[in-house]
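Box 3.1 A note on notation
Throughout this textbook, protein chains are presented in two layers. The first layer is the amino acid sequence; the second is a token string describing backbone geometry. Keep the layers aligned when reading.
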Amino acid sequence: MLQTFLKFTIQQSILQKLIVNTVIARALSTALNFVIALLIARHAGPAVKGDVTLLITTTWFLIFFSNILGGQVLVYLIPRNKIELLIVPAYCWSVLIALSGFVFLKFTHLIYANHIPSIVALSFLSAIISINQTVLLARKQIGNANVIQTVPLLGQLAGAIICFYFMHISDAYAYIYASLIAYTVTAGISLLSVKKFIHLTGAREFFSAKELKISFRFGLLFQLIEILQLLNLRYYFYQLGIQQGSKYLGIFSIGISILEAVWIIPRSIATVHYVQTSHTDDVKTEAHRAVQLFKLSFLLCALCLFAIWLVPSQVYIMVFGPGFSDVKHSMRFLFPGVLIYSFPLVISSFYFGTGKYRSLIIANAAGFATLIVFGWLLIPRYVMSGAGLAATVSFGVAATTLFGLFKADSQIPFSDFMPRKEDWLLFKNVLADRFSKEGKT
């Protein structure tokens, strides 16, 4: 009994440190994304910001298809299979998706035709980086994975500054050029980082029907969840942009970027817990740990959202310019939705780590269906406010659905979801660990 308690305590301490480090890395990434968005908004205006938003969203749709074989499902699969038989097919699949994406975009009118080659190249480079970053996570190299996440953003920021201030490029190509260079460099760094884990020279085979079947089975289900979640988070971007124009989308996307910065907390917690759960068979313990981590995330997110709510509209005008005077107005209905959605973000780590995706598929599908209906009803009439309200209703439906399914799957009583003394101790320990590190630096 004592040995079990000590083991749990040690694991909890390690998780706390990893969570703090990951939150810091994601906070830095979010800050860099914010500065990049600020540069675009200040130097190019809402219309170009809207164009860049659609460019980024389209790129990530291609990345999600690449991640069928090369996404974070590898964190679950690598400890259970031969790594070379998973990674080489993932690289090849990324090439195929890039080529298919090029053909698809050529025959559609989703984006400007002259942006297609750049989008395809960025999606391929991002897919390679994603594969290598996932390998690092699967080998519990969370610190190195965090570095890989931060490097391209530093390159993008440097490139954007050069384009705006020295090359005098003030359209979407400032973002495109900076991103191409940054992601090319990062792809090379990530390949060097995983070289010691992937032994291609001594491998006898690179493809196996058994591993391919496993990869496609788990990868398709994992990406189905990711795509449903992406649609749940971004589908109304297209509705708002097409129905109301790029200007409103540019303003609204700034508000979304600010509010979703809060999600660095649940996303960081989920990443660390996913890695932990993927390497253990003690499902019951990890289910209880997920609930405790959710309560920690909920408290921290609430504090951050309250701080954002206190920021006056004049600050957004001063920072982004007069064209963004409606930023705070556009996101007022999103505050409760962002807080509620912290639950699915954290609890999903339990399902990903155990390889059971049914509940996540149902919850995200329910949220997306809700978004389609309420987006159609509210956006044409209330524009940005309608988009925010539709998103909040969608997030609420997804969270409520997952709560019911998780409670049934885990058999955890409702009382365990309420705040307890040990939750406050965890909160204090996380803060103490962070501030003790600052004192040593």
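Residues 1-10, 433-441 have pLDDT under 50 and may be disordered. The chain has 16 helices and no strands.
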